[in-house]
Amino acid sequence: MAKVLIVDDEQMIREALRDALEFENYEVDEAANGVEALEKIEKDDFDVVLCDIKMPKMDGMELLDKAMALGKDTQFIMISAHGSIDTAVEATKKGAFDFITKPPDLARLLVSVRNAIDKTNLVQETKVLKKKISKKYQIIGESPAIKRVLEDIDKVAPTDARVLITGPNGVGKELVCRQIHEKSQRAKGPFVEVNCAAIPSELIESELFGHEKGAFTSAVKQRIGKFEQANGGTLFLDEIGDMSLSAQAKVLRALQEQVITRVGGDKQIKVDVRVIAATNKDLREEIKKGNFREDLYHRLSVIVIQVPALDERKEDIPLLVEHFLQAIADEYGTKKKEIEPEAVKLLQSRSWSGNIRELRNVVERLVIMAADDTITADDVQRYGMN
């Protein structure tokens, strides 16, 4: 049941609004002035506050300011007999959802309340989703090797420096990139990922820079490329060691001049993008072989973060196993399984060529195949050591 707080110094208005709202099955509370209302808002969570502007002790605008400073998701609908366009604009700028003049049209007010509640729900759902996303890309570990990575992330994230993330497959290079983005000033901007190894060389330029209609046979309409999509945010070029030399040349120009040109076009388009690249290859060796441009390497590697293989941080396996057990239980909607200490030691004793990704798969296999609520050493021997 949605909760609504009515703030007005006139008792008759509070009673009339309460009757209308309770008829719509809202839970209703009242306050006769701004000071009383602020105390209630601090102690309780309201979906909507219907707030008069002219009140003794603390007026509605001051209450709105103080309530917004609390950082709650409550939506304010301001009500005033002295309404004007300037007052409505000021209230909206301060964060009010709507402004209604007295005497209020009850039908209009109820519509506004419903819309405000919808916005409250949307804001709360967005926060939950962001928390889930943040948890999904959490970096787990307390080993010296992973602590160095986390320290590097904290140092480089607030800057706009380009970063090259290196390490074998499955170590979590994308997680490092996500963390850099989330801790940067671009966190509210887009995060756009391109897997350079998954796109054919003849299509990579169109993918990155877009194309104009008619640029090639299948270009039936204009396409916006990843650089433009990432404008104001972060572009993650995963497996950049697999990018063609022609595409590398265009990426280099984009990094140097902060402009791109769509395939088949001649218009220069200004872009503001932070590029973070990742590879499992030794790019210096690729340069020697003629497969990678040295000038692009130096542009990308302002900061190099080496993500350690799991075999280099086996002391993190108990934490990782617990994290995956909880994550898998959440995904399946089941009770989290426990795991015996001896079973964890067995997992630490084996080699992990597939790194974190392989460990996660093994834990999921153990969750599915283990007969009981506790994963035993025998379960690991049977399902987790091959």
The largest β sheet comes out as:
5 strands, parallel
- Assembly form of the protein: single chain
Output the helix-strand order: EHEHEHEHEHHEHEHHEHEEEHHEHEHHEH
Strand-residue proportion: 5-15%
Give the C-alpha Rg: 28 Å
Low-confidence stretches: none
Distance between the termini: 53 Å
The counted number of beta strands is 14
Strand arrangement, major sheet: 2-1-3-4-5
Structural class: alpha/beta
Tertiary shape: globular
Helix content: 40-55%
Q: Kindly state the mean pLDDT as a whole number?
A: 91
Number of DSSP helical runs: 16
What characteristics describe this protein?
single chain; 386 residues; five-stranded parallel beta sheet; 14 strands; 47% helix
Explain how this protein is built.
The structure is a single chain. The protein has helices spanning about 10-25, 35-45, 60-70, 85-95, 105-135, 145-155, 175-180, 200-210, 225-230, 245-255, 285-290, 295-300, 315-330, 340-350, 355-370, 375-385, and strands at about 5, 25-30, 50, 75-80, 100, 165, 190-195, 235-240, 260, 270, 275-280, 305, 340, 375. About 45% of the residues lie in helices and about 15% in strands. The protein is α/β, with parallel strands linked by helices and about 375 residues long. The longest helix is centred in the N-terminal third of the chain and has 31 residues, at about 105-135. Strand 3, helix 3 and strand 4 form a beta-alpha-beta unit. Helix 2 (about 35-45) runs parallel beside helix 3 and helix 14 runs parallel beside helix 16. It contains 16 helices and 14 strands. The strands form four sheets. Strands 2-1-3-4-5 form a five-stranded parallel beta sheet, sandwiched between helices. It has a five-stranded parallel beta sheet with strand order 7-8-11-6-12. The mean pLDDT is about 90.
